[in-house]
Structure formats: structure tokens, C-alpha cells
Design a protein that fits this description.
352 residues, six-stranded mixed beta sheet, 13 helices, 12 strands, 43% helix, repressor
Length: 352
């Protein structure tokens, strides 16, 4: 009896398939490469051996033959963000029909982490990259070597050399803040914002400023927050200086939950005392019964445009950089009072 040892099983090789099927390794290669003029009986023996041995092939060897890895790299800033999760799903669904494998990296909004993923994806010779950038130094090198689409935000190093798909953040922010000022008649609207080193946060802040200026109002701003806890602390100090009823525009869902935590800590009610708006997908809010008033970026449109630009760049690397935009849809809900609650909502303890 052959002694079995603990540990990992060695993956099956062509020689193992050939031995089990009783044919040469060349014959196995011909079957696996779907070459013509292979006897049906031999093909059946080889495929049966492949199934029995759970053979999965050698992607590196296949890549050498086809000069394609069958891999697409995607780098997102935060997998916990509902919008980024929905975008990843939309991209993966579009890849399924063409069979490439999606490699996912979460940069956690850190350029150093993004650098690691870019290095790994370049080493893997991915066929394309979709990047929501945090500012890695090697990103221009990746763009020059690999078909790449920059999505959601941009950085100066690739603004003029890469294909982009960006949302209309400035216009959406202006509409949301203008809604609070014009429709609800508020004279005070606060901005709770993330890091302005991120281009879409800057655009959303710009839209806020334009709406506040158009209404002849004073700005109330807390900015530069990386986490919901940071945002909650900044919002708490800011909201203490404001007189209800007042409005809030949060630049993304993490800032939204930070603002909601500050509102709860101050004992205020939504939407009686505070009317809240944001941009992003706030999927978690359905658990609380809230329907946020928010700007929703159409992920299917973003994914479709990104995949088209990626395919066109792969077909013709000499194309000039293209910039495409998508409009942000505005959904009105309970947090601004456009859809009424039966009683004003006072948030209980909020985990952020």
C-alpha cells in the first residue's frame, strides 16, 4: 500500500493525464488545445483523465502561447463602501460573458497599498486595469504599459494620459444643496466632507460652495475626514454652532453615517431638526427605515463605459485619451422630509 503523507496534493500535470489516458503528452496537448484531426476515442480518454485528475491547466503557459493572461485588475478605495461594491459587481457581470478573471485590490485610500497592487498586477501581466486611484507613483507607468481606465476620481499624474469615466459630482452636489435651500427654505446647510485630496470630494465641495453662494448663505464646513468616527467628531463640533432646522450635505456614505452619529449624540431628530443629503449608495439605511435623499451614481452605466473604453484601448493603443461622464441621479427620501416619516426619526446608538 502506498503511504500517504499529510499536506497539499501536487497539481496534476500533462504527463499525469497522458499516463492515465495511455497516450503521449503531445496527444494530450492536441486535445487540450482543441486541434483538428484528433481521433474521438483518444479525445474521450484524455478528457476523462482530465476530469478524474481535476486538471485545471497552467495559466502562465497559456499566456505565453496567447500573449494574454485572461486577467483584469480592479483597484477600489474601500470595499466597505456600498457604491464600490456595486461597481465591482457590475464590472464582474460584464466580464463573465467574455471569461476573463477579475483580480480585486482594496487600496484603503492609501497610495502605498495601491502601489503594491499595481506592482502585483503588472507582474501578472493583466490584460487591462480599472483603477479608482489614490495616487500611487507608478500609476502613469501602468497606464503606459497596460490598457487602463480611471474611474470615479482622478489624480494629476494621469489626468491627461489615461481614459476616464467620471460622474457629474459638482452638478449633483449643487442640486442637493440647492434643494435644501430653495425647496425647504433652510438658511443654514453644513458640509461634512472627506479628504479633499480626492478629486470627487473636491468637486462635491465645489458644488456645495456654488449652491451656498447662489443662496447668499454662509458656509458651515467640516472637512478632511477619513472615517465615520472622524466625521462624527467634526460634525458634532460643527452642528453645535448651528440652529435647527438646518441641512447637511455629506460627501459620501461614510460621511453620512458620521453626520447621523453626531445628530444622534446631540439629541436632534431627522428630518424635523436636521435634513440630510449625500452622494453614494446608502444600502445600510434600509435597515433603519430611512430612505436617504441622495445622489446615486448609475453603476451599470459606469461599468459599461469603462469596459468599452478598455476594449477599445486594447484594440488600438494609439487612441488619444478619452474622458466620458455619467450623470448622477437624485433620489428624494425621508432624510430631507420629501417622503414623510410617521414620526420624526431620532437616531438611537449608531455604530460607525
Amino acid at each position: 500500500m502506498t503511504e500517504t503523507r499529510p499536506g497539499l496534493r501536487r497539481p496534476a500535470r500533462l504527463v499525469d493525464i497522458a499516463e492515465l489516458a495511455g497516450v503521449s503528452t503531445k496527444s494530450v496537448s492536441r486535445v487540450l488545445n482543441e486541434e483538428a484531426y484528433v481521433a474521438p476515442a483518444m479525445r474521450d480518454r484524455v478528457l476523462a483523465a482530465v476530469k478524474e485528475l481535476s486538471y485545471v491547466g497552467d495559466a502562465a503557459a497559456t499566456g505565453l502561447r496567447t500573449r494574454r493572461s485572461g486577467l483584469i485588475g480592479l483597484i477600489i478605495p474601500d470595499v466597505r463602501n456600498g457604491y464600490f461594491a456595486l461597481l465591482t459587481r457590475a464590472i464582474e457581470e460584464r466580464l463573465a460573458s467574455t471569461s476573463p478573471t477579475l483580480l480585486l485590490g482594496d487600496s484603503d485610500e492609501e497610495a502605498i497599498q495601491e502601489e503594491r497592487y499595481l506592482r502585483t498586477f503588472r507582474q501578472q501581466h493583466v490584460d487591462g486595469l480599472i483603477v479608482l486611484p489614490s495616487g500611487a507613483a507608478s500609476l502613469p507607468d501602468a497606464v503606459s504599459e497596460i490598457p487602463t481606465v480611471i474611474v470615479d476620481r482622478t489624480v494629476p499624474s494621469v489626468r491627461k494620459i489615461a481614459d476616464h469615466v467620471l460622474a457629474g459630482n459638482r452638478r449633483a452636489a449643487e442640486r442637493l444643496v440647492g434643494h435644501l435651500v430653495k425647496h425647504h427654505g433652510l438658511s443654514q446647510v453644513a458640509l461634512v466632507a472627506g479628504r479633499t485630496t480626492v478629486s470627487n470630494v473636491r468637486d462635491r465641495r465645489s458644488g456645495y460652495n456654488r449652491a451656498i453662494s447662489a443662496g447668499g448663505l454662509d458656509p458651515y464646513i467640516t472637512v478632511g475626514h477619513a472615517t465615520p468616527d472622524d466625521a462624527a467628531a467634526g460634525a458634532f463640533e460643527l452642528f453645535r454652532t448651528m440652529t435647527p432646522p438646518f441641512g447637511v450635505f455629506a460627501t459620501n456614505n461614510r460621511m453620512f453615517w458620521g453626520a447621523m452619529a453626531a445628530i444622534a449624540r446631540l439629541g436632534l431628530h431627522v428630518p424635523r431638526d436636521v435634513l440630510v443629503t449625500t452622494i453614494d449608495s446608502i444600502g445600510e439605511a434600509t435597515v433603519t427605515g430611512l430612505k436617504p435623499t441622495q445622489g446615486v451614481i448609475p453603476v451599470q452605466s459606469v461599468a459599461a463605459k469603462a469596459m468599452r473604453l478598455l476594449a477599445e484601448r486594447a484594440d488600438d493603443p494609439t487612441l488619444p485619451p478619452r474622458h466620458e461622464s455619467v450623470d448622477i441621479d437624485i433620489e428624494y427620501g425621508t432624510t430631507c422630509g420629501c417622503i414623510p416619516l410617521t414620526t420624526p426619526l431620532m437616531m438611537g446608538p449608531v455604530s460607525v
